[in-house]
Design goal:
With about 400 residues, the chain is of the alpha/beta class. Helix content is about 35%, strand content about 15%. It has 15 helices and 15 strands. Helix 12 links the parallel strand 13 and strand 14. The radius of gyration is 21 Å and the shape is globular. The two termini are about 40 Å apart.
Length: about 400
């Protein structure tokens, strides 16, 4: 193999990229290596990916993982990474947020978590090791941790403000550098002042050059199967729009906010939206009670992963109302691939990283969501966040011999 992905278990959010790499390099040159077979619960959800020709158990391919020229990994195999670094091999580690709500940075007080973070930072000292944060919040969490470990006590109270290229493998720089370069429009500057991050326009003319630890970072995400009909391009939206939500009904997914935004209410403007909810979970009883009397809100049975895309093709707008526990939200990528317009919270990884600011709202802000559903919604398409662009980024790393400059503290 030339490129291998190391994961916990075969995932429909990872395999499409490996298949694309296999198409480009040859099937024998790209592989998906997993530690554990699919659980029965995952199989019931339709994750029947274990039969893929690219999915192989680690116990049978450990030597190849040690020696493959480019390894990108979702597993915290830091001892493996150090062994690879000693051989001069390139490793890309990807992860979701480090400090999700609840415990937040208090996680570092747990000795096991602290040791894990320290082992990761040690790996960063090698010039063939890179970090690919899954979403802008993961990037800011990392920079906060990096700064704290390097003595910047300001990181105890806030994460560094950043600007980033919204594409797989995109650069990440301090916000102040983007401001100094004059590449951010006024709307992006206002957004960054409120939320701590901004997307860098594509036409920045090479005015930013990451250095130090910033040169070790690249934006990343999850990459799903291409859309069958829309192919990732935005489709016309029916009015009134048909709104969709799919998933497990858990408290942190905040489905109740979506129900409240769509049900009839004298104080909120309506455009007659219809809402279809697919799935079950511990919040279902409360959600059904919340929707009593709202004929425009319908509940449906769980649908397997393979059928979700078909359901999407019969709707116009997908809404992700989750709070910051939503590390990414691959359903956003799936909806965009099928040509849907998407509204998502600024706290969600995929929403903040992929969508334009006008398609974002704060978790829990029912009024803002209702207002967005009451007026035309920007349908942006999948853009660069597809398997083809992600494969481009990895192939570029495979062929690159350039090493970044030495890490420097985040300030």
């Amino acid at each position: 193999m030339k490129i291998a992905f190391l994961g916990n278990t075969p995932s429909p959010h990872q395999l499409p990229l490996v298949r694309e790499l296999g198409r480009r390099l040859g099937e024998a040159k790209a592989g998906y290596v997993y530690r554990e077979a699919l659980s029965s619960e995952r199989r019931q959800m339709g994750w029947g990916a274990a039969n893929s020709a690219f999915a192989m158990p680690l116990k049978d391919h450990a030597d190849e993982v040690e020696q493959v020229p480019l390894l990108y990994s979702g597993e915290r195999a830091f001892a493996l990474f150090r062994r690879r670094a000693a051989r001069g091999l390139t490793t890309l580690y990807m992860s979701e947020r480090w400090f999700k709500p609840g415990l937040g940075m208090m996680r570092l007080l747990w000795p096991g978590y602290f040791r894990m973070a320290w082992a990761f930072l040690r790996c960063l000292r090698n010039n063939r090791f890179y970090y690919f944060p899954i979403g802008v919040h993961a990037a800011r969490d990392f920079l906060r941790m990096y700064g704290l470990f390097h003595g910047d006590l300001r990181c105890l109270f806030r994460a560094p403000a950043i600007a980033f290229e919204s594409r797989p493998g995109g650069a990440i720089v301090p916000l102040r550098e983007a401001l100094r370069a004059g590449i951010l429009p006024e709307a992006s500057i206002a957004f960054a002042k409120r939320f701590g991050f901004a997307q860098i326009p594509e036409a920045h003319g090479g005015k930013i050059t990451p250095c130090g630890v910033w040169a070790k970072l690249r934006m990343w995400g999850y990459f799903v199967e291409p859309g069958r009909g829309a192919g990732g391009h935005a489709l016309p939206i029916q009015h009134p729009p048909r709104v969709l939500w799919v998933g497990r009904m858990l408290d942190w997914k905040r489905v109740g906010d979506l129900v409240r935004a769509c049900r009839p209410h004298p104080d909120l403007k309506r455009v007659g939206v219809s809402l279809d909810l697919y799935g079950h979970g511990p919040e279902e009883v409360g959600l059904r009670a919340l929707a009593v009397g709202a004929e425009n809100i319908r509940f449906h049975d769980f649908v397997p992963v393979a059928q979700v895309r078909e359901v999407m093709r019969s709707h116009d707008v997908y809404v992700l109302p989750s709070n910051a526990y939503e590390g990414w939200g691959a359903v956003v990528s799936e909806a965009l691939e099928e040509g849907m317009a998407v509204l998502a919270t600024v706290e969600s990884g995929a929403g903040a990283t992929v969508l334009p600011p006008e398609n974002l709202f704060s978790a829990g802000d029912v009024q803002a969501l209702a207002e967005k559903l009451s007026r035309p919604i920007s349908a942006c398409g999948i853009g660069h966040w597809n398997v083809s662009a992600a494969a481009d980024a990895l192939v570029q790393f495979l062929g690159s011999s350039a090493a970044p400059c030495e890490p420097a503290p985040c300030v």
